[in-house]
Amino acid sequence: MSFAKISWAMLGSFTALAVCVPAANATNGYFAHSYGTRSKALAGASTGFAQDAIVSAINPAGLAYVGDRLDLEFELFSPHREYRVNGAGMLATGSVESDSEYFPVPTLGWSYKLDAEQTLGLAMYGNGGMNTDYKPLVNGNGLFSGANGTFGAGRTGIDMAQAFIVGTYAHSFAKGRYALGISPIFAAQTFKARGLNTFGQFGFSSEPDHLSDQGRDYSFGAGFRVGGLAELTPGLRLGASYKSRIYMSKFERYSGLFAQGGGFDIPDSFNVGLSWDVSKALTANFDVEHIRYSEIKSVGNTFQGNLLGHADGRGFGWNDMTIYKAGVQWQQSPDWIWRGGLSYGQQPIEGSEVLFNILAPGVQEWHLTGGLSHALSKQDELSFAFMYSPQKTITGPNPLSPGQSIDLSMSQFSLQFGWTRRF
């Protein structure tokens, strides 16, 4: 069987597996802090530094430099989510932790050089997601007095996962000094919510029958990413990429929850990065990423507004994010490579938006990362990355219960393993 047929068969099997695996990878808002084991170990500082076939998820131009290869990876991601209510009122006082703290996330990348200048590739990865799962504890005084669950409607939470299949064409120029790449993106989302029906009973939704507890719904859409990579001087590279807004079909079962009758497009984002070979063994990288959450009404609109599900309905009130990333790679020997990184981005949630963001407490800011690669042979390599994001807490008033405040907290860690076969 030819290499192409083997790769397509593996892609089909891997995609089928991924559809069955929930992803919850909310780090920079609900985007992953990066894609691919090597990049994740560098805290995502990889726009100007291509190392594997998964680089097309960051900068498709980088695919021109990675050769013929297959990258199979698996991440175990663990977020710890918690909210705390202070003061008597609508919600029960005290702390509540979310269940479901471990999530498997597969990733795949494949690249094939057509000739010395042209490369084709495929990648499959998750863009994160949001997940909360709060037990149905007895509520406090006020609006939901005596009822079970965070909002008085039983077990409460949401589960959103996003998966992407990306094809890439990359072309290098001037004997490899420059490269351009383009990637059509095909996206799928899955979502379910429970424990929110009381918002419909109290007149907060335009379609209360499509607000909560409607089972799992699916959404599909498409967009693109373009990128460029240039060697400014020997050993100094500049990379840049842009991912378009991905227009998704609506979550019809939840047309009373998300603005625009169930709309939940994926926002556009920009990446710029520098990579500098300080020496033959040491490479330093610095990236900036900007994500425009505010452009998506379901995410960017504040909770103080029109009804849930309305064309300009209430949302989570998220701001745009700008993330700064730095990573260093040291090649100790031909067989061993070590990596470390650090990133920071101000979390997107205002204190005034804490009530609805109990469902999606994407408050992380700092990410500490590290990892390594070990060559088993000229063809095979194993890689490893870890990430730790320390606990971040934001506090704000409950807009529906004067005198009551809410703390949202989250911390995270992940372990990712990768196997590479070069051809």
From TrEMBL:
Asked whether the keyword Signal is assigned, the reply is yes
Question: What's its membrane topology?
Answer: Multi-pass membrane protein
Where is this chain primarily localised? membrane
Q: Does the keyword Signal apply?
A: yes
Q: Which UniProt keywords apply?
A: Cell outer membrane, Membrane, Signal, Transmembrane, Transmembrane beta strand
Signal peptide per UniProt: 1-18
Q: Where in the cell is it found?
A: Cell outer membrane
Pfam short name (any one): Toluene_X
Instruction: Name the family.
Output: Belongs to the OmpP1/FadL family.
- What name appears for this protein in its UniProt entry? Outer membrane protein transport protein
